[in-house]
## 1
Amino acid sequence: MRELEKRLMKHIDLLVERYPSLETAKEDIIKAYLLMEECYGNGGKLLVTGNGGSAADAEHIVGELMKGFKMPRKPEADFAEKLVAENQELGSVLAENLQGALPAIALDGHSALSTAYMNDCEPLLCPAGKWVWQGGRCVPWHFYERKQQKRPLCGNDSSCQGDKGHRLDGRKR
């Protein structure tokens, strides 16, 4: 087992030990972690949304990802050096206090955009629209569950889980 896998399992096991009800979701938690690891490893960003209390949760996790949670994320050394070279006093303060981010966007925010879209367009599609505008590829069906068919809005087969690069009009990107 790779060292990363050992460390991941150590954290997952500790989480399940603290919250035994998560035992049934253990595999899903691992899959979610691996998906986020791949996303960030490829230079991507996490798009998060929710409704009601889940919207507050989405905003909260984005805040945790965009700044240090338990450990501060210092800027890369070359970036810190450039800041100091540009302005010794201010650059030093920035290099010491800025934190690197795991890019994430809460799609449930943006109240002006949301209300404008819901007023002028189909309100139920607002989260899906934000997904696409922020760089999401295919819109998974769970954003807007059709009564008759569970399929992505891109119109492709039901096996599409938002990862096939489809556009809303069904063409490939």
## 2
Amino acid sequence: MSQLNLEDSALLAKMKRELNKTKNRLQEVEEKLEEDDSISERLKELIDQNAKIANVEVSSESIKFELSDDRKISIPIWWSWQLEEAEPKTRQNYILSEDESRVIWPELNEEISVTGILTGDPAPRPEDDSE
């Protein structure tokens, strides 16, 4: 077994210190992410508990929501790629959830929630695997 010379030993010690610093920083970042997720979830809960959907109007360009607290919000139809691509008749075939927190299009397996409307959360399009 060979002995480490002084230079190699110092380099290893320095690398170990840097690795420990990196591990500590990673742990700090993970804790911050958990905290951010917790704040985000609490905000969504606050939004959900107060706003209900009172009325919905769907056109080829937008979806307009009237909420129980008298707010009126309009989102572009492209927020839901499924609605954007659907026939006009299918767009009009929606129901409100029992708690009035979501609009559901059963034929499309699509729904838009109050939380999604108020937090600006459009539906992601699926990846195109044809390339």
## 3
Amino acid sequence: MSRRKSSKPTSPAPTEPKLVASQSWHGPLPPPAALEHFERIVPGAAQRLIDMAEAEQKHRHSIEAGTLFTQQEAVRLTARDNLVGMVLGFLAQASGIGAAVWSVIAGAHWAVSLGFISLPV
């Protein structure tokens, strides 16, 4: 004899409705009521949370101070590089003009003076 499977779907067992609640907050510390609740559940938890928030703030401040120092150093180095570039550019142009004046005094062809003046360009 073969058994036949019933094609009738079985309905799931009825379930009771569930209530889910959640709470969130912004910032490193929960509101005072939640801190008090944590302290009742785990003695010392509130102090540990406060210590953790203070340590996080110190860490964040040290990271921001390092970033600020890096930015200030980059500005300082850029200013130094700009000044060095201007000094070297001035020296190159001054030496070209000096060589052009020397070539005129020495009696060289006018194209030599023009070459010395346009050399740094």
## 4
Amino acid sequence: MRVSLVARLAALLVVCSALASCDHAVSETAAASATAHDAGASSRAGVAFVAAPPEGEVAPLVVDALAQAARERRTLLVYVGATWCEPCQRFHQAALHGELDAEFPSLTLLEFDLDRDRDRLFRAGYKAKYIPLFVLPETNGAASDQMLSGGIKGEGAVGFIAPRLKELLER
């Protein structure tokens, strides 16, 4: 019985450690997104994330973001990811650390969370079988057919997404 209790405590410690590191990573991501949003996407060259508000229809939010991006001479994509999506997290971290700035010097990503925003995204036409999802929006804020979805897990995730994203932006 004593071994069982020790094993349970060890398992609980592992789970707590994992949750603490996930919470820390999510907090850092949220803080960086909020900083980019508060400072304005044009405050630096490269990829900038703008966190979409948690409420409101998507199309008007995209129209507003398109206008802001135009004022800042930046390209806007709608980005849909999730906290559980490994390729999403790897891309997000690479962008936040400036690893994609040279390749995407004026890219703004209006960021939505699939789990939180699924219904309202679908109403505006932002749907795909896989995430991350990157979409060039129409001027009315709806999704266009110019999109990129999906990625691979592991260290090659960013290397898989970046050239396809560049191709999407060059269309």
